[in-house]
Give the backbone structure.
Amino acid sequence: MWNFIEKQLLGMQWLKEAVHALFSLLGLNMEGRLAHSLVFFVYDTIKIFVLLSVLIFAVSYVQSYFPPERTRKILGRFQGITANLMGALLGTVTPFCSCSSIPIFIGFASAGVPVGVSLSFLISSPLVDLGAFLLLLSVFGLKIALAYVIVGIVLAVLGGALLDKMGMEDQVEEFIRLAPAVEAAQQELSWKDRCIYGKNQVLSIIRKVWKYVLIGVGIGAVIHNWIPEEWVVNLLGSGNPFSIVLATAVGVPMYADIFGTIPIAEALWVRGAGLGTILSFMMAVTALSLPSIIMLKQAIKPKLLAAFVSVVVLGILLIGLGFNLATPLFL
Amino acid sequence: MDIKLIGAGCPDCDKLKASTEEALKELGIEAQIQRISSLKDIILLGVMTAPSLMVDGKLIISGQAASTAEVKQQLEKLL
């Protein structure tokens, strides 16, 4: 039963077969590499857009119960590492990209939520969300998807707690720290309002990410069929410890979201790249990007910014290393 | 009517602005839309998601590019 859900419902194997059959009907030589690339491209694009729409709608419906203004109130009730954990967990049910989580981070800081807790939120929000979990489930299976979510949350909790210990309270810009805590009056939402909200989120996210998904699937299709397997294994296999550094260095400045990254990860995985290397790459792409760092610079001072980036990068490297060593557990 | 459109110039903000203008026209309301786009002003209003629409101090659209019909419906509740 679980196998059916994983392979057919989430993995949409039937769609791959259907695309394959359609191309054969059109008279394409199905043995060639070009045909394989085409099938991968069409199948993966359709799969990601369908899953994306369904997932974003569902997640947004849940999200509408946790508007950031309310999240902020919930966070205020916790202390110590529990607060970091709550910050990280609430990050999983709030927006999908680091650009929308930064204004929320600022809102937290202005309301007196400790900076370490706000940072836990800021790390986990783009890194881990329910949509990404289900998409990972469809591509990599339950064990790896769960492992990704758990280490993502651990990174957010420990990273935030560590930055808190460094005494960074004064590293948030004055205009944010000294802002009076006001709260805008919210309207009551009916279930219909929540559905409208979900629909609008689907449209707006698809408008934003479709190009990254197409580029990601395109790169995935090329890796899948044209790049020799031994290149991938030599450069990115778990036997090459340097591969994690390379994957992280390439991923950090890149701006894409997790949905565009997954097809690349999927292709690299099939071609023999190390599990830790792939996770490092995905995490580096989603958690940090040049635009989000520039945006964050408006809100926090250089010292905290440097510490934040270092802690996240270090965490991602360690996670990569750990997973490459522990890969046999996941096969 | 005091209407504030909150958002720092993302494409979604322009969408919401257009649908708000259209909704106001359809309802025959004469009002200026005030655009709030500096980070500081947004914090001072206590709003954390963009694009949002605030009418007379109350958020009626929060963090979404709502369509004309949806904005119109929310505005009608206030009339």
